[in-house]
Amino acid sequence: MNNAMTISEQLWQGAVPMEDWTAAVAGGSITPVGEDVVVVHTSYVFGNVTAIRTADGLVLIDTGSREIGDQIFAAIRKWDGRPVHTVIYTHGHIDHTFGVHLYDAEADERGVARPRIIAHRGVLERFSRYDATHGLNSVVMGRQFNIPGYAFPDRHRRPDQIYDDVLSLEVGGVHLELTHGRGETDDATFVWMPQKRVLISGDFIIWAFPNAGNPRKVQRYAPDWAHALRRMEALEPETVVPGHGPVVFGAARAKALLDDTASVLESLIHQSLDLMNQGKSLEEVLAGVVPPAELLARPYLKPKYDDPEFVIRGIYHLYAGWFDGNPAHLKPAPAAELARELAALCGGATVLADRAATLLKDGKTRLAAHLVELASATAPDDAAIQRVRADVYAGCAAAETSLIGKAIFSVYRRDAEGLMRSPGPGR
Prior knowledge:
The protein is an alpha/beta fold. It is built from 17 helices and 13 strands. It is globular.
């Protein structure tokens, strides 16, 4: 058993963090999945790639990202040198699709046909949306991963063949069944290899609490996600290849993984809908839903990337729209105008900032954030207020368990630090 597989076992037992596995696979690591099938990993952050050897050439399920596609390409070529016949996108996120350009270029150099790309119809719509929102995506991704000047990829390789619900494929003697579902994306596909009882789940399984509520991304679909997981569970796979993280071997573990992930989503969905059907506001739903702690303690369901609270917000938005039930939020006053009014009532922006600093010391980071934002909106050029603001968001980030939450709070900490360095009345 190689080091990555040893750590995978320890990870399943909850004995090591995911960072240990990422270190073990850095640069490109292969996990064999029976005969003629391997999974290539480079880190937890970037998606896995599955390679299948067939009589007609290789089938790849996903291709990696712009950043590490070359590492995956090298690992695959070390394993097998035959042309890539077919590529299946499990969805249109760039860490799963952008490595395809390497195989196109290779085919051109060899003078053979480029790989046939197969995906759900929604991938075409996604790539069109990416073209329309290129600048926005650059801003969002740069902030989320703290990469100043980040440029979101363009030149997305469109599928050559699309499908809607299910698609049965035969490539060089290998049978593959593609099924569409909505979850993290609306264009997702999971792939079933019935002869080997191998399930390639895409990002329906990511070795973390489901990423179904990202605050800076388009709508995600927790109910459909749970439904897709139940469909996968019914297949009774013996191996699950997740979109991120190590391969899970054995029917019992595969069932537990799929069942637990579906169950945690179903719990949040049912609790949220029960409260929404009573006419509760978003704030009341957030306060009333109790995430299942036993499930969230599973090594493969820890909320280290997304957060149950964000998912509850996504569920509310999916069913109820953007209005949160607070009438003051229907047509709110401009934030700066409200801030000035409240500052005048309490004696000035400095009073608000001082109170925010006290709340921060008491560990009340959420309330501190409200007050320091009011102070900042009232006096954005006051360096002393921005110093408190930076401290508050550093405290918010430290208190946050999810990578997404930490990243967003860190954006505003850096914003405050930048304003501190600008000349202003507080200097």
